[in-house]
Amino acid sequence: MRKYFLMLSASILFLSCSDDSETVTPELGSIFKVEYIQSGSYEDYKKEIGFSQPLFYEGTAVETGPILSEAALINRKYVFVSSKKLELLKVTFNTEPKEDSGEMAEFVINVYKDGKRIDNKSFKVAGSGVMNHSWEYKGGLML
Q1: Where are the strands (E) in the chain, listed by range?
Q2: Sign (positive/negative) of CA torsion 116, 119, 124, 129?
């Protein structure tokens, strides 16, 4: 009888113990924010900024679409954010002067990953010439 009691007690203890540890699966990606600032005679230039993933205008639910052209870039500053973690963000920026503009304009692009600035691009342009730029930013491994 004693053997049965010990076997029953051991069985109960064995079955009541479970694995309480939770497996944390790392999540790939980062939240990106892109600041676009233009100054000087920026109205004298055709310009567009593009993203590989649609972003949102900061503080709104308005999505950007893949490319913002001159008509959508009339203000001096815009801030765009990803609504979810991205593994990769590609940013493109293109500009060229409108008819014979000799006035100077400056375009600044700041990129933030998970709240920390990771890149700053600044372009001063005056006169003719086409500029085409493209950059890639990889998201991090999030625990």
Answers
A1: 27-28, 32-40, 45-51, 56-57, 67-68, 77-81, 88-97, 104-113, 116-126, 131-138, 141-142
A2: negative
Q: Residues 46-65: pLDDT tens digits?
A: 999 999 999 999 999 999 98
User: Which of 30, 25, 27, 140 shows the shortest CA–CA distance to 85?
Assistant: 30
Radius of gyration of the chain (CA): 27
Q: What φ, ψ does residue 79 adopt, rounded to 5°? A: -130, 125
Residue 104, helix vs strand vs coil? strand
Per residue in 91-120, pLDDT (tens digit) is 999 999 888 777 899 999 999 999 999 999
Q: Which residue has the tokens 């815009």?
A: 78
pTM, 2 dp: 0.78
Alpha-carbon distances of 113 from 8, 61, 110, 134, rounded to whole Å:
57, 20, 10, 17
Cα four-point dihedral sign 65, 70, 71, 74: positive
